[in-house]
Specification:
The chain is built from 11 helices and 12 strands. With about 350 residues, it is of the alpha/beta class. The structure holds nicotinamide-adenine-dinucleotide and uridine-5'-diphosphate-glucuronic acid.
């Protein structure tokens, strides 16, 4: 009964016509930010997360602590636990699901393929089955990935670009998720909006991602590896700052009926040079003239459809976003560093 009370308290909106949202993956990077933003707006939020150990779970616990301070409760459980999910819907008639729980990361799929199938395919279907049976039926917004564009290099990517050449099992499971979402919408009329996030970065980020461990390694004076694409050009990513992704998710929830990048592409070397300048340390760079297995060469989003449909307009450039990340990193890990002050490097333009 105490558990049910917490579930109800956490997910009851505090503003008139507020949403009641089940956020899966709420202890994760994007999930924790979205949960907080929704709660601050007066929506009801309940989190679900299995706190897996893909990366340092103490970071997930720290995010959970932060959420609890704002009265967001996270139920510890797995997407594949159908009785638990059904119980959550019995206690609370959620109007929306923001589905962010997944096995993320591109490289890890070569070590642990089953975890991708289990969370990104089986777990997603399990969640959809529960949503299908719920009354009212919640609208679902969920995270796909820019990786579905795979080996396609015809950037910028739009929703109608081909997605039939996944370069990793991760990408293949996200692509499968898109087909599964289509099916559940087609047969049962469930409102499903998939957002293709493009390399998201920022405070409270994921330690398995390049910008995070580049910062760590540069600070420790360790060498970093910079991979190149097949054509010897540097790999490029459309790095998207977390606050822009949060705005995109909330916009999609509000309109609940599309690709989310920042609308620019930056070479990975640019990421490193901004970090070097912010940290005031020269990185020990090791350039590898070979693509990483599973990596896609380029990502770059055309965000015009997301703008038309729910006003998605990213505003944080890479220098500003990385400055915020580095400040958070130094304070979270108690590292003495003087993040360089000064004018932002204008990084709005694309590099071709
Ligand atoms: P994250 O790993 O920080 O968050 C995912 C959370 O889901 C984790 O806390 C994990 O414990 C939880 N989880 C995983 N499997 C689960 C399961 N079976 N049951 C319950 N909980 C489970 O990742 P993130 O960066 O916050 O990514 C959020 C979503 O966005 C994911 O779907 C990811 O694939 C997608 N995405 C992220 C990026 C990015 O750059 N961060 C880019 C594209 C897509
Ligand atoms: C990221 C996330 O990890 C995925 O979960 C997500 O789905 C994906 O974005 C996406 O946009 O869909 P990725 O862009 O590969 O994947 O992120 P990182 O692993 O942080 O790599 C960023 C870039 O740095 C890549 O170009 C990669 O090749 C490069 N890199 C990575 C290096 O040059 N050296 C390294 O040691 C690691």
């Amino acid at each position: 009964a105490a558990w049910e009370k917490q579930v109800r308290h956490s997910s009851t909106p505090r503003r008139p016509n507020g949403l009641s949202v089940l956020v899966t993956g709420a202890a994760g990077f994007v999930g924790s930010h979205c949960s907080l933003a929704l709660k601050k707006r007066g929506d009801g939020v309940l989190g679900l997360d299995n706190f897996n150990t893909y990366y340092d779970p103490s970071l997930k616990r720290a995010r959970q602590k932060l959420l609890l301070k704002h009265q967001v409760f996270i139920v510890e459980g797995d997407l594949n636990d159908a009785p638990l999910l059904a119980k959550l819907f019995d206690v609370m008639p959620f109007t929306h699901i923001l589905h962010l729980a997944a096995q993320a990361g591109v490289r890890y799929a070569m070590q642990n393929p089953q975890s991708y199938v289990s969370s990104n395919i089986a777990g997603f279907v399990n969640l959809l089955e529960v949503a299908k049976a719920a009354n009212p039926q919640p609208a679902i917004v969920w995270a796909s990935s820019s990786s579905v564009y795979g080996l396609n290099t015809e950037v910028p990517f739009s929703e109608n670009h081909r997605t039939d050449q996944p370069a990793s099992l991760y990408a293949a499971t996200k692509k499968a998720g898109e087909e599964i979402a289509h099916t559940y919408n087609h047969i049962y009329g469930i409102s499903l909006t998939g957002l293709r996030f493009f390399t998201v970065y920022g405070p409270w980020g994921r330690p398995d991602m390049a910008y995070f461990f580049f910062t760590k390694d540069i600070l420790q004076g360790k060498p970093i590896d910079i991979y190149q694409a097949q054509d010897e050009k540097q790999v490029a990513r459309d790095f998207t700052y977390i606050d822009d992704v949060v705005k995109g998710c909330i916009g999609a929830l509000d309109t609940a009926e599309k690709s989310t990048g920042s609308g620019g592409k930056k070479k990975v070397g640019k990421l490193v040079s901004i970090l070097e300048s912010l940290l005031n340390i020269k990185a020990k760079k090791h350039v590898i003239k070979m693509p990483r297995n599973g990596d896609v060469p380029y990502t770059h989003a055309n965000v015009s459809l997301a703008y038309r449909d729910f006003g998605y307009k990213p505003t944080t450039d890479l220098s500003t976003g990385l400055r915020k990340f580095v400040k958070w990193y130094a304070s979270y890990y108690g590292i003495q560093t003087k993040v360089k002050k000064g004018k932002e490097v204008n990084s709005e333009h694309n590099e071709d």
